[in-house]
Amino acid sequence: MKLTVHNLKRKFNLFVSFLAISIFSSQCFAQSSTNSSSSKKFSYLNKFDSMFQFVLQNYVDEVDPRVLYEGAMKGMMDSLGDPYTSYLDEDTMRDLSDTTNGSFGGVGLSISKPIESKPDKPAYVEVASPIEDTPGAKAGILAGDYIIEIDGEPTESMTMDEVLGHLRGKVGESVKVTVLRGKNLKFTVELVRALIEIPTVKYGMIGNTGYMRLIQFTPDITERVQDAIDSFKKDKNFKNLIIDLRDNPGGLITSAVAVADKFIDEGPIVTTKSRLDFENAVYKASKNKTELRGIPIVVLINQGSASASEIVAGALKDNHLAYLVGAKSYGKGSVQQVIPLGSNEEVKMTVARYYTPSDTNIDKVGIQPDKEVLYPKLTEDDEKNYSALLDANLIAPYVEEHPEMTEAEIASYAEELKKDFNLDSRLLRRIIRIQVNRTKPTALYDLDYDIQLNAALELLNTTEDFEKLLQSTKTLKELQVEAEAKKAAEKAAESETSTKAE
Protein backbone atom coordinates (compact mmCIF):
# COMPACT_ATOMS: atom_id res chain seq x y z
CA MET A 1 0.00 0.00 0.00
CA LYS A 2 2.79 2.39 0.97
CA LEU A 3 4.66 1.45 -2.17
CA THR A 4 1.57 2.17 -4.30
CA VAL A 5 1.06 5.55 -2.70
CA HIS A 6 4.76 6.33 -3.05
CA ASN A 7 4.67 5.38 -6.74
CA LEU A 8 1.57 7.46 -7.32
CA LYS A 9 3.18 10.46 -5.61
CA ARG A 10 6.28 9.95 -7.73
CA LYS A 11 4.16 9.78 -10.89
CA PHE A 12 2.23 12.85 -9.84
CA ASN A 13 5.46 14.76 -9.14
CA LEU A 14 6.71 13.78 -12.58
CA PHE A 15 3.39 14.96 -14.05
CA VAL A 16 3.64 18.29 -12.19
CA SER A 17 7.23 18.70 -13.39
CA PHE A 18 6.16 17.94 -16.95
CA LEU A 19 3.24 20.34 -16.65
CA ALA A 20 5.51 23.04 -15.24
CA ILE A 21 7.92 22.60 -18.16
CA SER A 22 4.99 22.79 -20.57
CA ILE A 23 3.69 25.97 -18.97
CA PHE A 24 7.21 27.47 -18.86
CA SER A 25 7.71 26.64 -22.54
CA SER A 26 4.38 28.16 -23.46
CA GLN A 27 5.17 31.27 -21.37
CA CYS A 28 8.48 31.69 -23.19
CA PHE A 29 6.64 31.26 -26.45
CA ALA A 30 4.07 33.78 -25.30
CA GLN A 31 6.76 36.35 -24.42
CA SER A 32 8.42 35.96 -27.80
CA SER A 33 5.05 36.45 -29.47
CA THR A 34 3.92 39.38 -27.31
CA ASN A 35 1.64 37.14 -25.26
CA SER A 36 -0.52 36.31 -28.29
CA SER A 37 -3.81 34.45 -28.02
CA SER A 38 -2.36 31.56 -30.03
CA SER A 39 0.24 30.91 -27.32
CA LYS A 40 -2.52 30.80 -24.70
CA LYS A 41 -4.36 28.21 -26.78
CA PHE A 42 -1.14 26.19 -27.01
CA SER A 43 -0.75 26.31 -23.23
CA TYR A 44 -4.33 25.17 -22.55
CA LEU A 45 -4.11 22.33 -25.06
CA ASN A 46 -0.81 21.23 -23.54
CA LYS A 47 -2.31 21.13 -20.05
CA PHE A 48 -5.36 19.27 -21.26
CA ASP A 49 -3.34 16.65 -23.13
CA SER A 50 -1.09 16.13 -20.11
CA MET A 51 -4.04 15.63 -17.76
CA PHE A 52 -5.78 13.34 -20.25
CA GLN A 53 -2.71 11.07 -20.39
CA PHE A 54 -2.20 11.19 -16.63
CA VAL A 55 -5.77 10.06 -15.89
CA LEU A 56 -5.55 7.23 -18.43
CA GLN A 57 -2.32 5.95 -16.86
CA ASN A 58 -2.98 6.51 -13.16
CA TYR A 59 -6.70 6.39 -12.35
CA VAL A 60 -7.54 3.55 -9.94
CA ASP A 61 -9.54 1.71 -12.64
CA GLU A 62 -8.77 1.34 -16.31
CA VAL A 63 -10.53 4.11 -18.21
CA ASP A 64 -11.96 4.01 -21.71
CA PRO A 65 -10.40 7.05 -23.48
CA ARG A 66 -13.69 7.61 -25.29
CA VAL A 67 -15.41 8.22 -21.94
CA LEU A 68 -12.88 10.95 -21.12
CA TYR A 69 -13.18 12.40 -24.60
CA GLU A 70 -16.99 12.56 -24.56
CA GLY A 71 -16.99 14.02 -21.05
CA ALA A 72 -14.56 16.71 -22.14
CA MET A 73 -16.60 17.51 -25.26
CA LYS A 74 -19.83 17.81 -23.28
CA GLY A 75 -18.10 19.94 -20.65
CA MET A 76 -16.61 22.23 -23.30
CA MET A 77 -19.98 22.83 -24.97
CA ASP A 78 -21.78 23.25 -21.62
CA SER A 79 -19.18 25.78 -20.43
CA LEU A 80 -20.46 28.22 -23.06
CA GLY A 81 -23.71 28.54 -21.11
CA ASP A 82 -25.72 28.32 -24.32
CA PRO A 83 -28.69 25.92 -24.23
CA TYR A 84 -28.58 25.68 -28.03
CA THR A 85 -24.95 24.52 -28.19
CA SER A 86 -24.32 20.88 -27.34
CA TYR A 87 -22.29 17.77 -28.09
CA LEU A 88 -24.34 14.89 -29.51
CA ASP A 89 -22.77 11.55 -28.68
CA GLU A 90 -23.34 8.15 -30.24
CA ASP A 91 -26.39 7.37 -28.09
CA THR A 92 -28.05 10.67 -28.95
CA MET A 93 -27.30 10.13 -32.63
CA ARG A 94 -28.86 6.67 -32.39
CA ASP A 95 -32.00 8.25 -30.93
CA LEU A 96 -32.11 10.67 -33.87
CA SER A 97 -31.69 7.74 -36.24
CA ASP A 98 -34.61 5.97 -34.55
CA THR A 99 -36.68 9.10 -35.15
CA THR A 100 -35.81 9.08 -38.84
CA ASN A 101 -36.63 5.38 -39.14
CA GLY A 102 -40.03 5.80 -37.48
CA SER A 103 -39.24 3.80 -34.34
CA PHE A 104 -39.11 6.81 -32.06
CA GLY A 105 -41.77 7.47 -29.46
CA GLY A 106 -42.15 10.78 -27.71
CA VAL A 107 -44.61 13.02 -25.92
CA GLY A 108 -44.51 15.98 -28.32
CA LEU A 109 -43.04 18.78 -26.22
CA SER A 110 -40.38 21.25 -27.35
CA ILE A 111 -38.36 21.83 -24.20
CA SER A 112 -35.36 23.72 -22.86
CA LYS A 113 -33.36 23.35 -19.66
CA PRO A 114 -30.92 25.69 -17.91
CA ILE A 115 -27.44 24.21 -17.49
CA GLU A 116 -27.02 25.61 -13.99
CA SER A 117 -29.49 25.21 -11.13
CA LYS A 118 -29.82 28.11 -8.68
CA PRO A 119 -31.66 28.26 -5.32
CA ASP A 120 -34.02 30.95 -6.60
CA LYS A 121 -34.39 29.35 -10.03
CA PRO A 122 -34.10 25.54 -10.11
CA ALA A 123 -33.06 24.01 -13.43
CA TYR A 124 -36.46 22.53 -14.17
CA VAL A 125 -37.43 21.50 -17.69
CA GLU A 126 -39.35 24.35 -19.32
CA VAL A 127 -41.91 23.68 -22.02
CA ALA A 128 -41.12 26.01 -24.92
CA SER A 129 -44.15 24.80 -26.84
CA PRO A 130 -46.37 21.73 -27.08
CA ILE A 131 -46.51 20.19 -30.56
CA GLU A 132 -50.03 20.01 -31.90
CA ASP A 133 -51.86 16.66 -31.99
CA THR A 134 -49.28 14.99 -29.72
CA PRO A 135 -49.75 13.45 -26.24
CA GLY A 136 -48.33 16.52 -24.49
CA ALA A 137 -50.63 18.95 -26.28
CA LYS A 138 -53.70 16.74 -25.81
CA ALA A 139 -52.98 16.53 -22.07
CA GLY A 140 -53.28 20.32 -21.86
CA ILE A 141 -49.61 21.08 -21.17
CA LEU A 142 -48.87 24.70 -22.09
CA ALA A 143 -45.89 26.81 -23.13
CA GLY A 144 -44.27 28.14 -19.98
CA ASP A 145 -45.14 25.10 -17.87
CA TYR A 146 -42.30 23.46 -15.96
CA ILE A 147 -41.79 19.70 -15.77
CA ILE A 148 -40.44 19.18 -12.25
CA GLU A 149 -40.57 15.38 -12.12
CA ILE A 150 -40.50 12.54 -14.64
CA ASP A 151 -41.63 9.15 -13.36
CA GLY A 152 -41.14 10.44 -9.82
CA GLU A 153 -37.56 11.63 -10.38
CA PRO A 154 -36.84 15.38 -9.98
CA THR A 155 -35.66 17.05 -13.19
CA GLU A 156 -33.67 19.75 -11.40
CA SER A 157 -30.50 17.66 -11.30
CA MET A 158 -30.99 15.86 -14.63
CA THR A 159 -28.96 16.64 -17.71
CA MET A 160 -30.83 17.31 -20.95
CA ASP A 161 -29.73 13.90 -22.23
CA GLU A 162 -31.24 12.24 -19.16
CA VAL A 163 -34.49 14.18 -19.61
CA LEU A 164 -34.75 13.07 -23.23
CA GLY A 165 -33.90 9.52 -22.21
CA HIS A 166 -36.91 9.53 -19.87
CA LEU A 167 -39.36 11.20 -22.23
CA ARG A 168 -38.44 9.15 -25.29
CA GLY A 169 -39.20 5.48 -25.59
CA LYS A 170 -41.29 2.87 -27.31
CA VAL A 171 -44.56 3.93 -28.88
CA GLY A 172 -47.46 2.90 -26.64
CA GLU A 173 -45.51 2.96 -23.39
CA SER A 174 -46.36 5.63 -20.83
CA VAL A 175 -44.42 8.15 -18.80
CA LYS A 176 -45.65 10.24 -15.88
CA VAL A 177 -44.71 13.91 -15.69
CA THR A 178 -45.38 16.32 -12.85
CA VAL A 179 -46.10 19.83 -14.11
CA LEU A 180 -45.69 23.13 -12.28
CA ARG A 181 -47.85 25.94 -13.63
CA GLY A 182 -47.52 29.36 -12.05
CA LYS A 183 -46.21 29.36 -8.49
CA ASN A 184 -48.21 26.66 -6.79
CA LEU A 185 -50.32 24.65 -9.23
CA LYS A 186 -48.84 21.16 -9.55
CA PHE A 187 -50.39 18.18 -11.27
CA THR A 188 -49.24 14.84 -12.63
CA VAL A 189 -50.33 13.51 -16.01
CA GLU A 190 -49.63 10.17 -17.64
CA LEU A 191 -48.56 10.52 -21.26
CA VAL A 192 -48.62 7.59 -23.63
CA ARG A 193 -45.71 7.91 -26.06
CA ALA A 194 -46.66 8.19 -29.71
CA LEU A 195 -44.89 8.43 -33.04
CA ILE A 196 -44.37 12.17 -33.38
CA GLU A 197 -45.34 13.35 -36.84
CA ILE A 198 -45.23 17.12 -36.96
CA PRO A 199 -47.87 18.83 -39.12
CA THR A 200 -46.86 22.12 -40.71
CA VAL A 201 -49.92 24.18 -41.60
CA LYS A 202 -53.64 24.06 -40.84
CA TYR A 203 -56.02 26.54 -42.41
CA GLY A 204 -59.63 27.52 -43.03
CA MET A 205 -62.00 30.48 -43.25
CA ILE A 206 -63.56 32.22 -40.25
CA GLY A 207 -66.24 34.37 -41.86
CA ASN A 208 -64.37 36.70 -44.23
CA THR A 209 -60.98 36.03 -42.62
CA GLY A 210 -58.48 33.49 -43.84
CA TYR A 211 -56.92 31.75 -40.85
CA MET A 212 -53.76 29.68 -41.07
CA ARG A 213 -51.86 28.18 -38.18
CA LEU A 214 -48.17 27.57 -38.87
CA ILE A 215 -47.09 24.76 -36.55
CA GLN A 216 -43.39 24.39 -37.38
CA PHE A 217 -41.03 25.57 -40.12
CA THR A 218 -40.20 22.32 -41.88
CA PRO A 219 -38.85 22.06 -45.45
CA ASP A 220 -42.33 21.63 -46.95
CA ILE A 221 -44.07 24.49 -45.11
CA THR A 222 -43.73 26.85 -48.09
CA GLU A 223 -45.89 24.59 -50.26
CA ARG A 224 -48.47 24.17 -47.48
CA VAL A 225 -48.67 27.96 -46.97
CA GLN A 226 -49.16 28.34 -50.72
CA ASP A 227 -52.00 25.79 -50.57
CA ALA A 228 -53.65 27.88 -47.84
CA ILE A 229 -53.28 31.13 -49.78
CA ASP A 230 -54.67 29.53 -52.96
CA SER A 231 -57.63 28.24 -50.98
CA PHE A 232 -58.33 31.68 -49.49
CA LYS A 233 -58.13 33.38 -52.88
CA LYS A 234 -60.85 31.11 -54.22
CA ASP A 235 -63.25 32.25 -51.50
CA LYS A 236 -65.17 35.33 -52.67
CA ASN A 237 -65.59 36.52 -49.05
CA PHE A 238 -61.84 36.55 -48.34
CA LYS A 239 -60.86 40.02 -47.05
CA ASN A 240 -58.47 39.57 -44.12
CA LEU A 241 -55.72 37.20 -42.98
CA ILE A 242 -54.62 35.85 -39.61
CA ILE A 243 -51.26 34.08 -39.39
CA ASP A 244 -51.13 32.12 -36.14
CA LEU A 245 -47.56 31.56 -34.93
CA ARG A 246 -48.42 30.72 -31.33
CA ASP A 247 -46.53 27.76 -29.88
CA ASN A 248 -44.47 27.52 -33.08
CA PRO A 249 -40.94 26.62 -31.86
CA GLY A 250 -39.29 27.54 -35.16
CA GLY A 251 -37.34 25.42 -37.60
CA LEU A 252 -35.41 26.23 -40.75
CA ILE A 253 -34.37 29.82 -41.39
CA THR A 254 -34.74 29.25 -45.14
CA SER A 255 -38.35 28.15 -44.64
CA ALA A 256 -39.09 31.24 -42.54
CA VAL A 257 -37.61 33.45 -45.27
CA ALA A 258 -39.66 31.69 -47.97
CA VAL A 259 -42.90 32.19 -46.02
CA ALA A 260 -42.20 35.86 -45.23
CA ASP A 261 -41.31 36.43 -48.90
CA LYS A 262 -44.94 35.69 -49.84
CA PHE A 263 -45.97 38.94 -48.12
CA ILE A 264 -42.93 41.25 -48.49
CA ASP A 265 -42.12 42.92 -51.82
CA GLU A 266 -38.51 43.98 -51.28
CA GLY A 267 -35.74 44.62 -48.80
CA PRO A 268 -34.16 42.39 -46.15
CA ILE A 269 -36.25 39.75 -44.39
CA VAL A 270 -33.54 38.72 -41.96
CA THR A 271 -29.79 39.20 -41.59
CA THR A 272 -27.37 36.82 -39.88
CA LYS A 273 -24.24 38.21 -38.23
CA SER A 274 -21.24 36.30 -36.93
CA ARG A 275 -17.56 36.74 -36.08
CA LEU A 276 -16.83 34.90 -39.32
CA ASP A 277 -17.53 36.61 -42.63
CA PHE A 278 -18.81 33.48 -44.36
CA GLU A 279 -21.55 33.11 -41.72
CA ASN A 280 -22.90 36.59 -42.48
CA ALA A 281 -25.85 36.68 -44.85
CA VAL A 282 -28.69 38.94 -45.90
CA TYR A 283 -31.91 37.20 -46.97
CA LYS A 284 -33.89 39.58 -49.20
CA ALA A 285 -37.46 39.57 -50.43
CA SER A 286 -38.23 39.08 -54.10
CA LYS A 287 -41.14 40.93 -55.72
CA ASN A 288 -42.06 38.05 -58.00
CA LYS A 289 -42.63 35.76 -55.01
CA THR A 290 -45.14 38.03 -53.28
CA GLU A 291 -48.59 36.42 -53.14
CA LEU A 292 -50.68 38.87 -51.12
CA ARG A 293 -50.52 42.68 -51.22
CA GLY A 294 -52.61 45.29 -49.47
CA ILE A 295 -54.64 42.85 -47.39
CA PRO A 296 -55.05 43.45 -43.64
CA ILE A 297 -52.91 40.91 -41.74
CA VAL A 298 -52.79 40.09 -38.03
CA VAL A 299 -50.07 37.82 -36.66
CA LEU A 300 -50.73 35.95 -33.41
CA ILE A 301 -47.72 35.29 -31.15
CA ASN A 302 -47.13 34.05 -27.61
CA GLN A 303 -44.28 32.85 -25.41
CA GLY A 304 -44.15 29.61 -27.40
CA SER A 305 -43.33 31.51 -30.62
CA ALA A 306 -39.59 31.17 -31.14
CA SER A 307 -36.76 31.35 -33.64
CA ALA A 308 -38.08 31.04 -37.22
CA SER A 309 -41.56 32.14 -36.16
CA GLU A 310 -40.01 35.29 -34.65
CA ILE A 311 -38.20 35.91 -37.94
CA VAL A 312 -41.53 35.98 -39.79
CA ALA A 313 -43.29 38.08 -37.13
CA GLY A 314 -40.37 40.51 -36.91
CA ALA A 315 -40.07 40.89 -40.68
CA LEU A 316 -43.78 41.62 -41.15
CA LYS A 317 -43.81 44.04 -38.21
CA ASP A 318 -40.72 45.98 -39.28
CA ASN A 319 -42.19 46.34 -42.78
CA HIS A 320 -45.53 47.58 -41.35
CA LEU A 321 -47.33 44.73 -43.09
CA ALA A 322 -48.91 43.01 -40.07
CA TYR A 323 -50.31 43.92 -36.67
CA LEU A 324 -49.11 41.66 -33.85
CA VAL A 325 -51.59 40.42 -31.25
CA GLY A 326 -51.07 38.13 -28.24
CA ALA A 327 -48.22 37.84 -25.75
CA LYS A 328 -44.46 38.48 -25.93
CA SER A 329 -42.59 35.85 -27.92
CA TYR A 330 -39.89 33.52 -26.59
CA GLY A 331 -36.77 35.40 -27.68
CA LYS A 332 -34.48 33.05 -29.60
CA GLY A 333 -32.46 35.16 -31.97
CA SER A 334 -29.56 32.82 -32.72
CA VAL A 335 -28.63 30.48 -35.54
CA GLN A 336 -27.24 26.98 -35.01
CA GLN A 337 -25.13 24.80 -37.28
CA VAL A 338 -24.61 21.05 -37.00
CA ILE A 339 -20.96 20.04 -37.35
CA PRO A 340 -20.42 16.31 -37.97
CA LEU A 341 -17.38 14.86 -36.19
CA GLY A 342 -17.80 11.37 -37.56
CA SER A 343 -20.49 8.87 -38.41
CA ASN A 344 -21.85 8.74 -34.84
CA GLU A 345 -21.20 12.11 -33.27
CA GLU A 346 -21.68 15.78 -33.99
CA VAL A 347 -21.76 19.20 -32.37
CA LYS A 348 -24.67 21.59 -32.62
CA MET A 349 -23.28 25.09 -32.11
CA THR A 350 -24.54 28.66 -32.23
CA VAL A 351 -22.62 30.33 -35.05
CA ALA A 352 -24.53 33.57 -35.61
CA ARG A 353 -27.33 35.83 -34.42
CA TYR A 354 -30.12 37.00 -36.65
CA TYR A 355 -31.42 40.54 -37.03
CA THR A 356 -34.81 41.76 -38.20
CA PRO A 357 -35.16 44.26 -41.08
CA SER A 358 -34.76 47.18 -38.62
CA ASP A 359 -31.40 45.66 -37.56
CA THR A 360 -32.66 44.36 -34.21
CA ASN A 361 -31.68 41.16 -32.41
CA ILE A 362 -34.40 39.80 -30.11
CA ASP A 363 -32.37 37.06 -28.41
CA LYS A 364 -33.46 36.68 -24.75
CA VAL A 365 -35.72 39.71 -25.30
CA GLY A 366 -38.55 38.50 -27.51
CA ILE A 367 -41.05 40.49 -29.56
CA GLN A 368 -43.71 42.52 -27.79
CA PRO A 369 -47.06 42.45 -29.64
CA ASP A 370 -48.71 45.67 -30.80
CA LYS A 371 -51.81 44.65 -28.87
CA GLU A 372 -51.18 42.56 -25.78
CA VAL A 373 -53.93 40.09 -24.94
CA LEU A 374 -53.18 37.87 -21.95
CA TYR A 375 -55.13 34.99 -20.51
CA PRO A 376 -56.19 35.64 -16.89
CA LYS A 377 -53.70 34.28 -14.38
CA LEU A 378 -54.98 31.83 -11.82
CA THR A 379 -55.27 33.27 -8.32
CA GLU A 380 -54.16 31.24 -5.30
CA ASP A 381 -57.78 30.20 -4.75
CA ASP A 382 -58.06 29.24 -8.43
CA GLU A 383 -54.92 27.10 -8.16
CA LYS A 384 -56.32 25.32 -5.10
CA ASN A 385 -59.65 24.73 -6.84
CA TYR A 386 -57.91 23.55 -10.01
CA SER A 387 -55.79 21.10 -7.99
CA ALA A 388 -58.90 19.87 -6.19
CA LEU A 389 -60.64 19.33 -9.54
CA LEU A 390 -57.69 17.33 -10.87
CA ASP A 391 -57.45 15.28 -7.67
CA ALA A 392 -61.16 14.51 -7.82
CA ASN A 393 -60.69 12.98 -11.30
CA LEU A 394 -64.30 13.64 -12.29
CA ILE A 395 -64.00 14.80 -15.89
CA ALA A 396 -62.39 11.75 -17.57
CA PRO A 397 -64.94 9.22 -16.24
CA TYR A 398 -67.83 11.56 -17.08
CA VAL A 399 -66.62 12.06 -20.65
CA GLU A 400 -66.12 8.31 -21.01
CA GLU A 401 -69.77 7.83 -20.12
CA HIS A 402 -70.80 10.66 -22.49
CA PRO A 403 -68.35 10.25 -25.41
CA GLU A 404 -70.09 12.49 -27.97
CA MET A 405 -70.81 15.57 -25.87
CA THR A 406 -72.15 18.59 -27.75
CA GLU A 407 -71.09 22.15 -26.96
CA ALA A 408 -74.36 22.65 -25.07
CA GLU A 409 -73.66 19.56 -22.97
CA ILE A 410 -70.09 20.71 -22.32
CA ALA A 411 -71.40 24.09 -21.13
CA SER A 412 -74.00 22.44 -18.91
CA TYR A 413 -71.45 20.12 -17.27
CA ALA A 414 -69.07 23.07 -16.76
CA GLU A 415 -71.76 24.89 -14.77
CA GLU A 416 -72.24 21.81 -12.61
CA LEU A 417 -68.52 21.66 -11.87
CA LYS A 418 -68.42 25.38 -11.13
CA LYS A 419 -70.76 24.89 -8.16
CA ASP A 420 -68.15 22.74 -6.41
CA PHE A 421 -64.87 24.16 -7.71
CA ASN A 422 -65.63 27.85 -8.43
CA LEU A 423 -63.46 28.19 -11.55
CA ASP A 424 -64.08 30.37 -14.58
CA SER A 425 -66.75 28.81 -16.82
CA ARG A 426 -64.68 29.34 -19.96
CA LEU A 427 -61.73 27.52 -18.41
CA LEU A 428 -63.93 24.64 -17.27
CA ARG A 429 -65.41 24.29 -20.75
CA ARG A 430 -61.89 24.25 -22.17
CA ILE A 431 -60.76 21.48 -19.78
CA ILE A 432 -63.81 19.37 -20.62
CA ARG A 433 -63.41 20.02 -24.36
CA ILE A 434 -59.78 18.84 -24.28
CA GLN A 435 -60.91 15.59 -22.68
CA VAL A 436 -63.76 15.14 -25.17
CA ASN A 437 -61.38 15.66 -28.12
CA ARG A 438 -58.42 13.71 -26.72
CA THR A 439 -58.69 11.00 -29.40
CA LYS A 440 -59.56 13.39 -32.24
CA PRO A 441 -57.37 15.70 -34.32
CA THR A 442 -57.01 19.15 -32.78
CA ALA A 443 -59.77 21.52 -33.90
CA LEU A 444 -58.70 24.35 -36.19
CA TYR A 445 -59.74 26.94 -33.60
CA ASP A 446 -61.68 27.35 -30.35
CA LEU A 447 -63.58 30.62 -30.44
CA ASP A 448 -65.19 29.92 -27.08
CA TYR A 449 -61.87 29.95 -25.21
CA ASP A 450 -59.38 31.70 -27.51
CA ILE A 451 -59.50 35.35 -26.45
CA GLN A 452 -56.42 36.22 -28.53
CA LEU A 453 -57.97 34.92 -31.73
CA ASN A 454 -61.20 36.76 -30.90
CA ALA A 455 -59.23 39.98 -30.35
CA ALA A 456 -57.59 39.56 -33.76
CA LEU A 457 -60.92 38.99 -35.49
CA GLU A 458 -62.47 42.00 -33.79
CA LEU A 459 -59.51 44.17 -34.78
CA LEU A 460 -59.76 43.14 -38.43
CA ASN A 461 -63.52 43.55 -38.63
CA THR A 462 -63.88 46.85 -36.75
CA THR A 463 -60.82 48.89 -37.78
CA GLU A 464 -61.87 51.39 -40.44
CA ASP A 465 -58.37 52.25 -41.71
CA PHE A 466 -56.14 49.24 -41.11
CA GLU A 467 -53.28 50.68 -43.19
CA LYS A 468 -53.19 53.76 -40.98
CA LEU A 469 -53.09 51.50 -37.91
CA LEU A 470 -50.12 49.58 -39.36
CA GLN A 471 -48.18 52.74 -40.16
CA SER A 472 -48.67 53.96 -36.59
CA THR A 473 -46.84 50.94 -35.15
CA LYS A 474 -43.17 51.12 -34.21
CA THR A 475 -40.41 48.96 -35.59
CA LEU A 476 -38.50 46.65 -33.28
CA LYS A 477 -35.50 48.99 -33.47
CA GLU A 478 -37.62 51.96 -32.36
CA LEU A 479 -39.05 49.93 -29.49
CA GLN A 480 -35.58 48.76 -28.47
CA VAL A 481 -34.18 52.31 -28.50
CA GLU A 482 -37.13 53.48 -26.39
CA ALA A 483 -36.61 50.66 -23.90
CA GLU A 484 -32.89 51.43 -23.59
CA ALA A 485 -33.60 55.16 -23.10
CA LYS A 486 -36.19 54.36 -20.43
CA LYS A 487 -33.75 52.04 -18.66
CA ALA A 488 -31.01 54.69 -18.75
CA ALA A 489 -33.40 57.33 -17.38
CA GLU A 490 -34.48 55.04 -14.55
CA LYS A 491 -30.84 54.29 -13.71
CA ALA A 492 -30.00 58.01 -13.69
CA ALA A 493 -32.98 58.72 -11.44
CA GLU A 494 -31.88 55.99 -9.02
CA SER A 495 -28.34 57.40 -9.00
CA GLU A 496 -29.63 60.92 -8.32
CA THR A 497 -31.83 59.68 -5.47
CA SER A 498 -28.90 57.79 -4.00
CA THR A 499 -26.67 60.90 -4.21
CA LYS A 500 -29.26 63.05 -2.46
CA ALA A 501 -29.63 60.47 0.28
CA GLU A 502 -25.89 60.57 0.93
Explain what the structure shows.
- The protein has about 500 residues and is of the alpha+beta class.
- The chain has four domains: about 1-65; about 85-190, Pdz3 Domain; about 200-375 and about 465-480, 2-enoyl-CoA Hydratase, Chain A, domain 1 (Alpha-Beta Complex); about 380-450.
- It is about 45% helix and about 20% strand.
- The chain contains 16 helices and 17 strands.
- Strands 2, 3, 4, 5, 6 and 7 form a six-stranded antiparallel beta sheet that branches.
- A hairpin with a 7-residue loop joins β11 (about 270-275) and β12 (about 280-285).
- The protein is globular and about 75 Å long.
- Mean pLDDT is about 85; it is low at about 1-5, about 15-35 and about 95-105.
Features:
single chain, 502 residues, alpha+beta, Pdz3 Domain, 2-enoyl-CoA Hydratase, Chain A, domain 1, six-stranded antiparallel sheet, six-stranded mixed sheet, globular
The low-pLDDT segments are 1-6, 14-34, 96-103
Instruction: Report the span from N to C terminus.
Output: 66 Å
Number of domains: 4
Do you know the CATH architecture of the largest domain?
A: Alpha-Beta Complex
| Total beta strand runs | 17
CATH fold topology of the largest domain: 2-enoyl-CoA Hydratase, Chain A, domain 1
How is the biggest beta sheet arranged? 6 strands, antiparallel
What proportion strand? 15-25%
Q: Provide a count of the helices.
A: 16
Mean pLDDT: 87
Estimated radius of gyration: 27 Å
Helix content: 40-55%
Shape: globular
Instruction: Kindly provide the name of the CATH class of the largest domain.
Output: Alpha Beta
Briefly note the structural class of the backbone.
alpha+beta
Looking at CATH, the homologous superfamily of the largest domain is: 2-enoyl-CoA Hydratase, Chain A, domain 1
